[in-house]
Write a structure and sequence with these properties.
- By secondary structure, the chain is an alpha+beta fold.
- The chain has one domain.
- 49% of the residues lie in helices and 12% in strands.
- A three-stranded antiparallel beta sheet has the order 1-4-5, covered by helices on one side. Strands 2-3-6 form a three-stranded antiparallel beta sheet.
- Helix 1 runs antiparallel to helix 2 and helix 3 crosses helix 4.
- The longest helix has 46 residues.
Length: 177
């Protein structure tokens, strides 16, 4: 039986990247993959418009880290990396619908390279309903995010204009030290 062992321990590199402090090890049917300490990941690469449905991390985090590692090297083909991603999410207990939608997204991102006619038909069967289901909420999120960004920019501009002292750099620390 295949499994991902250990827990994910990371340190922040920047707002979108994290460095592993412990290895993530996946023991599959035929191979074992070890994502080494120091590997940098972004967890699940989810467009901002969809993080309300699929956050960048969750029960599938180890599978996402493994997928990043497999796509980063030449250990397996991209199609195999995507398949291992789907299989490892199943083994982590990710729901059927979520793992297939996530698989369809990574296959699309890989431009469907190495895909067989059968796998393409499966991909279409997942991608078309998922797109229809996600399109309206994604558009709402994108529009409201843009409106929020405009509002934030306007408020920030007024704040800078009327309260310039609020824009001076601040140092974080312990009070009294």
């Amino acid at each position: 039986m295949a499994y991902l062992q250990g827990y994910v321990a990371v340190e922040e590199v920047d707002e979108n990247a994290w460095r592993l402090l412990r290895p993530v090890i996946y023991s599959g049917r035929d191979q074992t993959f070890e994502v080494p300490v120091g590997f940098v990941t972004d967890f699940a690469s989810v467009p901002a418009a969809f993080t309300w449905l699929v956050p960048r991390y969750g029960v599938y985090t180890k599978a996402a880290v493994l997928h990043d590692f497999l796509c980063d090297g030449a250990i397996v083909s991209r199609a195999d990396a995507d398949g291992i991603f789907r299989r490892s999410m199943r083994e982590l207990g990710v729901s059927l619908l979520r793992r297939w939608v996530m698989w369809a997204a990574v296959r699309l991102h890989s431009r469907l390279r190495g895909i067989s006619a059968r796998e393409f038909a499966i991909w279409l069967a997942v991608a078309i309903p998922a797109t229809v289901f996600l399109l309206v909420p994604a558009l709402v999120v994108v529009v409201w995010s843009a409106l929020f960004w405009v509002g934030e920019a306007v408020v920030f501009g007024f704040e800078r204009l009327f309260h310039p002292e609020a824009n001076a750099p601040h140092e974080f620390g312990v009070a009294g030290h």
